[in-house]
């Protein structure tokens, strides 16, 4: 089902207003440049990682001189590590390099200020310090007394 000319015009007007109001959000919805650049960095990082693995294999195979073997091995490892870091960090947003620190001082991800802090419906209930088996036996005794 196609949209009418008036609906298309309204849709374009809403899109322009969104881009003017919040261009970053609009580009996120489109998923254009950031995803393409992240994919490019990930592929580049994978290629660099393979070059580093090749240098490590070359160090093992061309190992007549210990100095050459050690130097090529260290170089291969550093290149491989750099490629892996580039590939693994390419999908993060520029501002998401580390987990945010909440007001409580704990780090981590969450919805709003770390998400919910307690289970609903259990407010005021304290956790027993008794061992697990003792708590289970007590629950069993209460059930038998109630006849359930």
What would your notes on this structure say?
Among the domains are: 1-30; 35-92. The relative contact order is 0.07. With 148 residues, it is an all-alpha fold. The model is unreliable at 94-118 (pLDDT under 50). The chain has 5 helices and no strands.
Question: Secondary-structure blueprint of this entry?
Answer:
Layout: H1 5-21, H2 23-30, H3 33-61, H4 66-89, H5 132-146
Helix pairs in contact: 1-2, 3-4
Region (Disordered): 92-148
Protein name: DUF3040 domain-containing protein
Keywords: Membrane, Transmembrane, Transmembrane helix
- The proportion of strand residues reads under 5%
Specify the helix fraction band: 55-70%
| Tally of alpha and pi helices | 5
What is the general shape? Answer: flat
Main beta sheet strand tally, sense and closure:
none
Structural class call reads: mainly alpha
What is the CA-CA span between the terminal residues? 60 Å
Given as residue ranges, the uncertain stretches (5+ residues, pLDDT < 50) are 94-118
Number of strands: 0
Integer average pLDDT: 76
Please compute the radius of gyration using only Cα atoms: 29 Å
SSE pattern, N- to C-terminal: HHHHH
Transmembrane segments: 42-62, 68-88
Biased composition (Basic and acidic residues): 134-148
Pfam families: DUF3040
Organism: Nocardioides furvisabuli
């Amino acid at each position: 089902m196609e949209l009418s000319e008036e609906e298309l015009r309204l849709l374009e007007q809403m899109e322009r207003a969104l881009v003017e109001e919040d261009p970053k959000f609009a580009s996120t919805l489109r998923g254009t440049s950031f995803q393409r650049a992240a994919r490019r960095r990930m592929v580049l990082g994978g290629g660099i990682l393979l070059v580093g693995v090749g240098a490590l294999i070359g160090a093992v195979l061309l190992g007549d001189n210990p100095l050459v073997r050690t130097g090529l091995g260290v170089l291969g490892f550093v290149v491989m590590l750099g490629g892996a870091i580039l590939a693994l960090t390419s999908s993060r947003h520029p501002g998401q390099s580390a987990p945010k620190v909440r007001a409580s001082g704990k780090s981590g991800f969450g919805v709003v200020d770390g998400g919910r802090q307690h289970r609903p419906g259990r407010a005021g209930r304290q956790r027993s310090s008794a061992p697990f088996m003792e708590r289970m036996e007590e629950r069993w005794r209460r059930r038998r007394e109630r006849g359930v």
